[in-house]
Design goal:
- By secondary structure, this protein is mainly alpha-helical.
- The chain has one domain (2-89): Rossmann fold, CATH 3.40.50.
- The chain is 50% helix and 9% strand.
- The protein contains three helices and two strands; from the N terminus they run H-H-E-H-E.
- A two-stranded parallel sheet has the order 1-2.
- Strand 1, helix 3 (56-75) and strand 2 (86-89) form a beta-alpha-beta unit.
- The longest helix has 20 residues, at 56-75.
- The radius of gyration is 15 Å and the shape is elongated.
- The two termini are 26 Å apart.
């Protein structure tokens, strides 16, 4: 539950999710040199709709990945890098 999440847990979850997205900036110059390429960021179904079985921090951080990826794709669309998708994996247990 949200009131039980410490600041350290919040920071750890947010950092582990968002750090990968921040590294996209290093790929952009290399993609320009190569004449194209793709970046794939990993999100979650929780980024679309909150899930009750994971923390609200996780849900929020995955939503941030989705929006970051979408805005990056829009900003660089004119450079025709190809796709900058965000994938949302879903695990269904039997």
């Amino acid at each position: 539950m949200l009131e039980e999440i410490s600041v350290n847990e919040w920071d750890r979850s947010w950092t582990s999710t968002q750090k990968g997205c921040s590294l996209d900036q290093g790929a952009i110059p290399e993609m320009r040199k190569a004449g194209g390429g793709s970046i794939v960021n990993i999100s979650s179904i929780s980024g679309f709709t909150g899930q009750s079985y994971v923390s609200s921090v996780y849900n929020a951080s995955k939503g941030a990945v989705r929006i970051f990826t979408k805005s990056t794709a829009i900003q660089y669309a004119s450079e025709a890098f190809g796709q900058i998708p965000s994938t949302q994996a879903r695990l269904t247990l039997p």
